[in-house]
Amino acid sequence: MQVVADVIAQFTGAERRGAFFIALATALLGLAMAVTGNGDSFGAHGALVLAASIITIFCLIRSFDKPEPSSERLQSYYDEPTKAGIVLAMAWAVLGLFVGDWVAWLLVYPDLTFDAAWASFGRIRPVHTTGVIFGFGGNALIATSFYVLQRTTRARLPDQLSPWFVLWGYNLFCVIAVTGYLMGVTQSKEYAEPEWYADIWLVVVWVTYFAIYLRTLVRRKEPHIYVANWYYMAFILVVAILHIVNNLAVPISFGSAKSYSAFSGVQDAMTQWWYGHNAVAFFLTAGFLGMMYYYLPKRAGRPIYSYRMSIISFWGITFFYMWAGSHHLHYTALPQWVQSLGMTFSVMLLVPSWASAGNALLTLNGAWDKVRDDATLRFMMVAAVFYGLSTFEGSFMAIRSVNSLSHYTDWTIGHVHAGALGWVAMITFGAIYASVPWLWKTRGMYSARLVEAHFWLAVAGTVIYVFAMWNSGIIQGLMWRTYTEGGTLAYTFTDSLVAMRPYYMARAIGGLFFLIGALIGCYNIWMTIRMARVSATNTAADLQDAPVAALQPGE
Amino acid sequence: MPDHDTAVWLSKSYGLVYLVALSLGVLLYVYWPANRKRFDQAAESIIRYEDRPWR
Question: Is B46's CB within 8 Å of A552's CB?
Answer without folding.
Answer: no
